[in-house]
Amino acid sequence: MTRFALTLEFDGTPFMGLQRQKHGPSVQQAIETAAAAITQEDVRMQAAGRTDAGVHAIAMRAHIDVEKPLSAFQMMEALNARLRPQPIAVIGCQIVADAWHARFSCIERRYLYRICNRRAPLALSAGRAWQVAPPLDEEQMQAAAQILIGTHDFTTFRSVHCQSQSPVKSLSLLQVERSGEDIMIHAAARSFLHHQVRSMVGCVALVGMGRWTIDDLGAALAARNRQRLGLNAPAHGLYFKEAVYAVAG
Amino acid sequence: MTRFALTLEFDGTPFMGLQRQKHGPSVQQAIETAAAAITQEDVRMQAAGRTDAGVHAIAMRAHIDVEKPLSAFQMMEALNARLRPQPIAVIGCQIVADAWHARFSCIERRYLYRICNRRAPLALSAGRAWQVAPPLDEEQMQAAAQILIGTHDFTTFRSVHCQSQSPVKSLSLLQVERSGEDIMIHAAARSFLHHQVRSMVGCVALVGMGRWTIDDLGAALAARNRQRLGLNAPAHGLYFKEAVYAVAG
Fold first, then answer.
1. Which residues of chain A have pLDDT under 70?
2. Final residue of a domain: which of A104, A123, A157?
3. Can you give the CATH number for the domain in which A71 is found?
C-alpha cells in the first residue's frame, strides 16, 4: 500500500462541497472516481478540511491509499487526465509515510477571504470574491478582528449544522489587508467550526461598514448565541489556502 | 447630447469579441442594448480597442452619446443593472467633452498577457491564463522581447484578417516578469495590429521553452512573413489593461 499526499486546487462553484454528498457532485467524489478508474481499487480520500459548497481551494491537502505501484508523478498525471474537464487540479503529489494523515496530522488550517469593495458588480472576479458596495474601513475591520484572536467559545460564529464536539476554538490569526479595491482577510487556526471563517468575516465587515461597533462584535462573541450573528459572508469569497503539518508531507 | 466615457471590465469568454458581430454576442452589442433600453435612443458605442473573442478587459475605455439627461452615476448604475447577468461591469463613468473620443483620442493601448507556467491544468484560473507546461526561462523571454521594441514592420505577427492600412507599428513596451508560476507580459503601443500581442507572446514563449533562439525571433521579425510565425498564444490569457489619453476622459 502506498499513501499519496495530494495538493488540490479547485474552483468550488460546481461542487456541493469537498466532502462526498448524496445530493450532488463533490471534490471527494471526483478524486475517488478518478483514482478508482486509474487503479481499479476502491479508493477513499481524506482531506485536511471540509469546505462548503462554493468554497474554493488554492492548496487543499488530502491523501489516498493505493495498492497499484505508481510513482508520484504518474499518479498526478493520471489524476489530472481523469479529472478533466472538472475544475480540480492536482498541483502536488508525494508518496508519504503511512503515519502521515492529511486530516489528523494537520496542525493548522489557513484560509483567505476575498472581498471586492466596489459599487460595480464583478465581471472578471464573479464567483471569486464577495462584492461589498458600501465603503469599508479596513483599519476598523483589522482592529475588530483582533478581539476574536485567542481561545473562545465561538458558538455565535458556528453553523447549526456544525458537528464539532466543542464550540471552543483557538484562533491564531485574523488579518485584514487592503490592496486597492480588494480586501484580503487571512485566517488561521488549528481547526475551525463549520461556517466560522465566513461568520467572522461577515461580522467584521459590518464593523467596516460602520453598522457595528467593535463593542457590538465583542458582545456578539460573548453572547455565545447563533441568534446574535450579524452576517454570514458568502461562500464564493472563501479559499482554503494552506494546511500546515509538523512533519513534511 | 451628452458623451459618457465608460470604463469596462469584462470576462471575454462568452463573447465573439468587443466589436458587434453578426454571428454571436459581443460586448458592444451588450452595452448598446442596455443603453438603448435606458434611453429609448439608438446608441452606438466607440471603444479604445477591438479585442478578439475570448480576450478579457481589466479597464477597456469606451464612449456613448445620449440625449436623455442622466448623471454619470445614474448612467453607470442603470447600465450595470441592465447588463446583469452578463460578465460586463461598468467600473467607471464620466461625462466628457464632445472632443474626447474613446478610440481617436487614445494615445497608447496597454495589454497584459498572463501565462501560468506549470504542468497541472488550471482550476481557479481556467480561461484566465495560458497554461504552459514546459519550464519557461523568463530572463531569456525578456531578452527576446527587447528586440521587438521600436518601430518595425510586424507583418509576421499580424493576422491575415488585420484591417490596418500599414503593418508598421511602434512597440513601446514588452516586459516579461515572473511571480511564482505566473509569467506576466506587459505590452504597450500607440496601436497594435490584429493578433499582434498574442503572436509576439507566442514567439517569445518559444524562446522561453528553448525551442527558438533570440536570433530565430529576430529572423522571423525580419522576414515580414506570416508563414514565419512560430506560435499564436491563445486569446484567454490576454487582458486589455489600460487606454491612455492626452486629455483626461
1. 248-249
2. A104
3. 3.30.70.580
Distance from CA of A68 to the nearest CA of B (A): 22
- Does residue A13 lie within any of the structural domains? yes
Segments of chain B scoring below 70 in pLDDT:
248-249
Q: Assess whether B65 carries a catalytic annotation.
A: no
What SS3 string covers chain B? CEEEEEEEEECCCCCCECCCECCECCHHHHHHHHHHHHHCCCCCEEECCCCECCCEEEEEEEEEEECCCCCHHHHHHHHHHHHCCCCEEEEEEEEECCCCCCCCCEEEEEEEEEEECCCCCCCCCCCCCEECCCCCCHHHHHHHHHCCCEEEECHHHCCCCCCCCCCEEEEEEEEEEEECCEEEEEEEECCCCCCHHHHHHHHHHHHHHCCCCHHHHHHHHHHCCHHHCCCCCCHHHEEEEEEEECCCC
What residues form DSSP beta bridges with B174? B187
For residues B89 and B172, state if they share a domain.
no
Distance from A200 to chain B by nearest Cα, in Å? 24
For chain A, how many structural domains are there in total? 2
Range of the domain at A204: 108-244
Q: For residue B191, what is its C-alpha cell?
A: 496601436
Contact in structure between B61 and B50 (CB atoms under 8 Å):
no
Neighbours of B74 (CB within 10 A): 13
Residue B238 confidence (pLDDT): 98
Instruction: Check whether A113 is labelled as a binding-site residue.
Output: no
In the prediction, which pLDDT does A249 show? 52
Q: Answer with the one of B104, B120, B144 that is the final residue of a domain.
A: B104
Are A19 and A82 in a shared domain?
A: yes
Q: Do A58 and B88 touch (CB under 8 A)?
A: no
Distance of CA A130 to the CA centre of its chain: 15
Catalytic residue among B52, B153, B215, B216: B52
Same domain for A160 and A204? yes
